Amino acid sequence: MTKFKPTDSELEILHILWEKGASSVRDINDLLNTRRDVGYTTTLKLMQIMNEKGLVKRDTAARTHIYKAVVRENETKNNLISDFVNVAFQGSAMNLVMQALGNTSSSVEELSELKSLIAKLENKS
Amino acid sequence: MTKFKPTDSELEILHILWEKGASSVRDINDLLNTRRDVGYTTTLKLMQIMNEKGLVKRDTAARTHIYKAVVRENETKNNLISDFVNVAFQGSAMNLVMQALGNTSSSVEELSELKSLIAKLENKS
DNA sequence: TACTATGTACGAAATTATTCGTAGTTTTAA
DNA sequence: TTAAAACTACGAATAATTTCGTACATAGTA
Fold first, then answer.
1. Contacts of residue B125 in chain A, CB cutoff 8 Å?
2. Using the CA of A25, which nucleotide's C1' is the nearest one?
3. pLDDT < 50 regions, chain B
4. Which CATH number, 3.40.50.300, 1.10.10.10, 1.10.1760.20, 1.20.120.340, labels domain A8-69?
5. Is the C-beta atom of B12 closer than 7 angstroms to strand C?
């Protein structure tokens, strides 16, 4: 299995592609600009680099190229978590989970969702 | 409150300082070299930069300077989590928690520890 | 048609992070 | 006492990321 390691900017674009599906550079740039100023050619360059890296694929049939994510959301996030856990929590994912949970205010609904995930995990073992 | 954003290398050093307490560059470099090759002056430079940034403080009374972490482990990790959640999980810490948990194999002990944390959180609300 | 908007390609500047060599000083030990 | 070892300071090379300008082609429109 290959290792995906998108940069922060790349990840920002991947989130858009995961949510919106295949998109043009214009679409993506417009969405990015609802949050912060980004030049069109900046976004374009990023997409080209992501294409080279194999993070996205593009359809160049029409003049306006259409990009879609190649890497899957879950897989990518799992890789990111695993790197993050290694760098910041010395390998202990549970450590991260506990700290993230303790640091956040959670709703009753979220907590009960979490509890049922735990129940599932307990049944697996 | 100031925002700490240690880089990966800086974090690696902070972990050592948090665990071992105040240390010389030599101490730290030796520990780093149990994992990978790092030149002594590379580590030295890093420590000097961390000092400038205010991540560490040093005692220069003796020829061999002694460095200690200024930023606290919990606070730093919370900042890291919060950044990570923003970049990779679009702000939802619970999302991160669920995915990290689902992606990891957890022991019965860990899960019950987690459950008691959840119980605590439930009582708070 | 001819002007404007929209698109791609690409080079390169700016920034940040990492790495290390060299110079020069002090300490240690043969 | 002198040679080797250990230490700091610092400049600079390298690499990765982000940003954008410029050139040029195509499409739409007045």
1. 108
2. C7
3. none
4. 1.10.10.10
5. no
